[in-house]
Structures are given as C-alpha cells and as structure tokens.
Amino acid sequence: MITVTSPLWLWTGENGSWHFITVPDQLSDEIRAHCLMVMRGFKSARVEATIDNVSWRTSVFPMKSGGYFLPVKAEVRRKANIAAGDEVTVTLELL
Predict the structure, then answer these.
(1) 27-67 tens-digit pLDDT
(2) Domains defined for the chain, CATH in brackets
(3) Do 68 and 28 form a contact (C-beta atoms < 8 A)?
(4) Angle formed at CA 11 by CA 27 and CA 5, multiple of 5 degrees
(5) Contact between residue 8 and residue 72 where contact means Cβ atoms under 8 Å apart
(6) Torsion-angle region of residue 43: left (phi > 0), alpha (psi -120 to 50) or beta?
(7) Quick one: which of 81, 57, 66 has its CA closest to 8?
(8) Whole-model pTM?
C-alpha cells in the first residue's frame, strides 16, 4: 500500500481539463517494480485508489520527472468533497 499526501491539481488542454494527484518519485519505486512485472500500455499500473472512504479503480501513469500521476474523476471529487488546490491523502493498492 502506498500513501501519498499531495495537492489535487488541474491540467487544461485543447480537449478539456483533468484533475490529478502526483505520486512523487521517492514513493514510486514499488510502482516501477510492479510495472516491470506487468507490462501495460504507457508503462502504467492499475491501482485501487482511496480518498476519504471513496474508492475507485484506475491507472497511474509515469511522469518524465520520475514520479507518477493519478487521475481523479469528477464523481470521486464530488463524493470526497475535494477540489483543485486541496491537499489530499490517497492510498494506492497495486492491482
């Protein structure tokens, strides 16, 4: 289990906006090792993420800086009552 406390941030592109939480490089060794065992597209890893008793399944994706980013969909943000800029604690279980 990996626990991360980080701000929820907003990325805006041509086709919309997405919210993410960054898993810092120093907490990503377990994810990288898992990715070597389970080859998936984009070197992503499937996870079950939990924020304030709200759980969902998604993937984390590698960043050029060495960490990973976790997408947080609107339904999860509503249920957990979080918004961009909030400091959020999330637990990740690798699947």
Answers:
(1) 888 888 776 666 665 678 999 999 999 999 999 999 998 89
(2) 2-86 (2.40.30)
(3) yes
(4) 30
(5) yes
(6) left
(7) 81
(8) 0.88
